[in-house]
Specification:
The chain is of the alpha+beta class and about 160 residues long. It has helices at about 35-45, 85-95, 105-110, and strands spanning about 1-10, 15-20. It is globular.
Length: about 160
């Protein structure tokens, strides 16, 4: 069982409540899906190329940062894939032998801790977030790193 925090802003006062939900054991990927991995998926499932994916299953930003429907920009192959639809993410997970986590599973894996951050109360110390800075060169995230250094209270691996 997990207790998940629910934040609500009603009127002028934010309200935090907790809901208890039952979550069975689940597996979640240790790393983000890279552009390289998603390209392999697209090559084996050409119906998910940006020029072939049905419009009702994607928006106009779907893989727009790729150089072509089957070509990732140089230097971004190991960056997390971005600008994919929920439908494409679900198809990728099925192709890879998994499934998208439920909302409750995602909340549990991402932040199952009483602390502000899964690793403690502040952002000091080694980098633990995947965010874009000047080194990203047009990407929306930093490259996927090597091994993580720590885990959340629910034992999901974190950087």
């Amino acid at each position: 069982m997990a207790a998940l925090a629910v934040f609500a802003l009603r009127g002028r006062e934010p309200r935090i409540s907790f809901e208890r939900v039952w979550i069975d054991r689940f597996w979640i990927a240790r790393y983000e899906v890279s552009n390289r991995e998603f390209l392999r998926f697209v090559e084996e499932n050409p119906q998910w190329r940006r020029d072939r994916a049905p419009k009702e299953l994607r928006d106009e930003d779907y893989l727009v940062h790729w150089l072509s429907p089957d070509r990732v920009p140089p230097g971004l192959a190991d960056h997390p894939v971005t600008r994919v639809s929920w439908f494409a993410a679900r198809a990728f997970c099925e192709w890879a032998g998994g499934e998208l986590p439920t909302v409750e599973e995602w909340k549990t894996a991402a932040h199952a801790s009483a602390s502000v951050y899964p690793w403690g109360p502040d952002l000091s110390g080694p980098a633990r977030l995947n965010y874009c800075d000047v080194a990203c060169r047009g990407s929306t995230a930093a490259p996927i790193p090597e091994p993580p250094s720590g885990m959340t209270a629910s034992r999901a691996r974190r950087r």
